[in-house]
Amino acid sequence: MPLIVGLGNVGEKYQDTRHNIGFTIVDRLADTLSAGLEETDHPFIMGVGRFKGIKTVLIKPTTFMNNSGKAVLKACQIFHYLPSDILVCYDDINLQAGNIRLRKEGSAGGHNGVQSIIDHLNTSNFPRLRFGIGNDFQRGQQSSYVLSPFDDDEVDVVDMGLNKAHDASLLFIREGIVQAMNVFN
Fold it and tell me: Among 20, 150, 155, 177, which residue's CB has the most CB atoms within a 10 Å radius?
């Protein structure tokens, strides 16, 4: 039973920002899996659905990005997940907008939400789906950039990327990270 985690920040203020692309991916998956996302007594919004008969849990941490590890650890404890069962979806400024890259494991690459997960799980050995948000910002403006919406001229490429991220996540559910990497990287 896989766990798909979308990273982002809760609240309307952050809803359509680049930094919330992980939430957007999980929202799209929730529609496909008929997994109604609901608030819980835990530090995450959760939905449970099925794809090709495989039960899948979707979560969106409510801890804000930099404390995402707290929510992921709690989900692992509740559902007895191993790190290899998790696919973490998040934004990456090192990829062009709309591009995706899957990894079996790795460093945080400067992403505070991923670092929090590494710190809480005490391992960097968990699959991840990085979604490119571009890096068209001036020095010192990274925070403002990631908390801004995509530009109008990026909308089509981002939507195509979201379709790829959705399909890559479904392949992860069905066949695992190696197959998803082989097809989508």
Answer: 20
